[in-house]
Design a protein that fits this description.
Elements lengths: L22 E3 L2 E8 L4 E7 L4 E6 L4 E8 L1 E6 L2 E6 L3 E4 L5 E4 L6 E8 L4 H8 L5 H9 L4 E2 L4
Amino acid sequence: MPIPPPMTAGVTAKGSSVEGLVWNILGQTYVPLQVSESSFAWHATFPPGTFVPPHVHPMQDEFIYLLGGRFDLVLDGQGATAGAGDLIRLPRAIPHGIFNNSGAEVTCVFWVSPTCRLWDLFLAINNVPDPGEVVRLAGLHEVNFLPPP
C-alpha cells in the first residue's frame, strides 16, 4: 500500500473495517479500523493459548486497550498482567511480548504511531502458517523478533 491518505473525521461502524479486510495472523484475528501515515488502529481477538513473542518496534509507539480477557506480558524483560479496561503502553524500542494464558478469548484494540510499515507487514503475513516465515517477513517490515531465551 502506498503512503496512507491523511486521516478523515468520521465513524468506523461496528462490524466494518478498512477496505473490508480481516486478517488471520497465526490464529489471531485482526480487523483494521483506521490507517493513516501517523497512526494505525485494529481490533484483535486472541483465542486461548495464542501469543505474540517478544519483539521490538524501533520506530513506533504501540498501545493495547483490553476490552475483555487478560494478557500476560513481558515488558522490557519484566512480567506484567493486564485485564479488561487496562491500557498497555509500549514505547518504541522497548521489547515486549503478549500472551493469552487465561484459557478464555481476549479482545482488544491496538494502535501504533506512526504507522511505518506495519500495515504492509499485516498484508504480507495474513494466512501465513509458518512462524519462522512470519518472523522473517517482520524483520523486513521494521518489527524485530527476539531470539528465544
